[in-house]
Amino acid sequence: MTPDLFENGPNAPTSVLAGDRRQTVPFSLLEKIRGKSPGIRAIQFLGLLHVPEGKKAGKPLKLANFQRNFVKGALAKNVTVGVLSIGRGNAKTALSAGLSLAELVGALEERPQPNREIIFAARNRDQARIAFNFLLGYIRGLPEADQSLFTIRRGSKLEVEFGGNGGGLARCIAADGKSVLGGSPTLAIMDERAAWERAKGDDLENAILSGLGKRDGRALIISTSAPDDTNTFSRWLDQPPPGSYVQEHRPSFGLPADDLPSLLAANPGASEGIGSSADWLVSQARSAIARGGSALSSFRNLNRNERVSIENRSVLVTVDEWLSAEVAPDDLPAREGPCILGVDLGGSRSMSAAAFYWPDTGRLEALGTFPAFPSLADRGASDGVSGRYSEMHDRGELSVMGENTVPPGPWLAEIVRQLDGIQPVCIVGDRFRVAEFNEALNKAGLGRVPFLWRGFGWKDGSEDIERFRRALFDGELKVAPSLLLRFAFSDAVTIIDPAGNAKLGKGRSLGRIDAAAATVLAVAQGARMKATPQRKARVQWM
After folding, report:
1. In terms of domain of life, where is this protein from (predicted)?
2. DSSP assignment, residue 402?
3. How many other CB atoms are found less than 10 A from the CB of residue 105?
4. pLDDT tens for residues 125-136?
5. Which pTM does this prediction carry?
6. Cα 397 to Cα 149, 229, 391, 480, distances in angstroms
7. 3-class SS at 60?
8. Of 232, 234, 197, 225, the residue nearest 388 (C-alpha)
9. CATH 1.10.10.10 fits 35-248, yes or no
10. Where are the domains of the chain?
11. For residue 111, what pLDDT is reported?
């Protein structure tokens, strides 16, 4: 191999071959590929490469079953976009680099297009360099005669040019939409798509997809799970357009972080000697559980491939903190003692939510209601949560009432009917909606039930949030698994003023935190009631 091919400088070549020789120079590995379909040809080609780094460096590359399935599915006929979601450390970038090399040398087609163009897009230049180094590692493992057909550029641009079989150019770029304007790639790979900056990432994706149509190109979108449903990568998984192949390795939500079967579901490579071992994953899970907070949220998102937020500086409670309150429906405490009703009355076309809390037993229940128009399916699409609202409705956690708004009076009456004759000792709501609440209470026949006004600003909000958190952390809260509450608390954040006071806010503009707000009001009031000493009866002396 000529050393100059991997060097920069004024004497570094810009191409190895020129003119018509690009069409005739042989590439020896292609002679060993006999498959007809792109998927089979890709698998055969990858089997001829050698592992470039790690504990198996230098050994022939052997694909795991999940990798074979993805290659076949993503490169199948009539598929233009392949989407893979899997936990960190399962050789996503290594597989992507191998497929990039396969397209670069023209191995995916019996009669490949000339001057093929491959774009490997990553979140930033450092991530792009990792993919670039994998590509170079594969090239260094080729026979020397084949290596001489490649030109490497690693200055301001990270490029690999191939001089045989019609020629090709592979570029590794950062997520900047302007980087690919005017391009016409035959293969585009978007690595760690969920981690891209939202605006620039969407610009780059749109530029890539528009360029693919010029030459019937394909796109592969590969990443660990995004932190929420609104991320563009989440929408690829939840609402794939026609011509897409989706393969997602995500365990069921709510399982312990160290649950081995679900860890292996998110990390299928662990069972086949790829990436982290099962023992390492379990040990790291237990370490994350012990540390809690952002460490546990990050482990769930990155290693368990769960769709949970890794932002912890301002969240009301973390995912695992909330899950600690969930119990099986049969294990729920009884409806005993005084019941407190927390209410967050929705405005026009928004959700109204109610939370029932029994402070003596810790039992919590929550219900939400939307107006009928638009439909739950349309709301889910516009809010970026796919079919979540319809799923909540099927579970009995979300109802529909009214046309464009939820009528406060009939809604409160229906909410109280859910208590099966139990009369709440008090109702807690937002002071800002006092007039509407008074009208609603009278229409619902609740005029004699004491109503406690609370503000959602710094003063009342900070106290209620602290009391709610203390009750949750002390185990004084028990609730059946509820999608309504899970998603409400995943969107609920706290806004901190310079004095350290907190008030409730939305983590995203389309978030629905109404059920979380009602829960905070009810639980905080329950905590105040428990902390108030009971008055003893006066003794009358005769």
Report:
1. Bacteria
2. S
3. 26
4. 888 999 999 999
5. 0.74
6. 62, 19, 9, 11
7. strand
8. 234
9. no
10. 35-248, 260-312, 323-531
11. 87
Name the residue among 480, 513, 472 with its Cα closest to residue 353.
513
Cα-trace Rg, the chain: 29
Average pLDDT of every residue of the chain? 86
Instruction: Report the distance separating Cα 495 and Cα 492, nearest Å.
Output: 10
Domain covering 323-531 assigned CATH 3.30.420.240 in the classification: yes
Q: Are 187 and 162 in contact (CB under 8 A)?
A: no
Say how far apart CA 97 and CA 399 lie, in whole Å: 48
Task: Measure the CA–CA gap between 213 and 225, rounded to whole angstroms.
Answer: 27
pLDDT tens string 313-333: 578 898 888 989 999 999 999
ω into residue 450 within 30 of 0, thus cis?
Answer: no
* Residue among 131, 126, 105, 124 nearest 116 (CA): 105
User: How many other CB atoms are there within 10 angstroms of residue 144's CB atom?
Assistant: 8
Among candidates 262, 268, 232, which has minimal Cα distance to 69? Answer: 268
**Coil, strand, or helix at residue 162?**
strand
- pLDDT of residue 49 exceeding 80, the answer is yes
Is the peptide bond prior to 329 cis by the omega test (within 30 degrees of 0)? no
Tell me, what DSSP letter sits at residue 33?
A: -
Q: Long-range contacts for 69-73 (Cβ within 8 Å, ≥24 apart)?
A: 69/247, 70/95, 70/245, 70/247, 71/39, 71/42, 71/43, 71/46, 71/95, 71/99, 72/39, 72/40, 72/43, 73/39, 73/245, 73/247
